[in-house]
Design brief:
globular; single chain
Length: 275
Amino acid sequence: GSHGGTVMSLPLTASHRKHAAGIQDYMHRIINFREQVDFEVTFCTMLWLCMDPRRAYRNAEYHSRTKHQWARDDPGFVIVMVALISVSMTSWSVAFGPGSVWGWILGVTFAVCVDFVGVGVVAAGIAWLVVNGRAPTSQGDPFSYGGEAETTARATVEFAYAFDIHCNAYFPMFLLLHVSQYFLLPILISPSFFASMLSCALYGAATSYYWYLTFLGYNALPSLRHTELLVLPVGGCLLLAFCALIVRYNPTVASINYYFGEVVVEEPEVVLAAS
């Protein structure tokens, strides 16, 4: 009995050591990012996510064959995203914030730690639990392995890769809701039907594309089937945007008031003049 317990514990210990070494190496690269991070690959990936997202995941598949893991071992993408979000929230804080350094710090911290990292960790954790927590798959499972050994093979997903999928999907949404929305503010916060329509279209496109990139990320894994289910939320996002338009709900005004307090009211032009 004790001998069997020892044998069973060896693979688990080796796995833990591998993950611990990977985390240690990842943190080392973040600390020494100037020498350890390939920003050229990061910016190319960001460009592909906007213009040819399937190419980005073809590179992930190549990475899985050469380094035996789907997740990126380069923290460049996360570093760039944190920097971009920090700059963006600084601009938004200047326009609508309370004007204090503490308020700016809180805004940047919330956007980075909750909106970006927190949501990503939760999304990756749910995906990891749903896929990896299942018993050996069968033909009736929605995420079962497609192959001859369908009754014994187990579909798996790396937690780090699931987080990478969130990061990839977040970048185009960031461009739409942090950057484009900022420059369209004079139009978006005006009390008009066109402003509500443009805002709903912006949020509908951003959230829909987020789910589409999420689908592409999991669809790249050969061990998963029926990943097209991840496209279903796209319809929900578009339907919500349409319903919001019918009642003349303006997501831009709502998000500004959520992050910075009730700063956009019935006459937003006065707010712009004051800012």
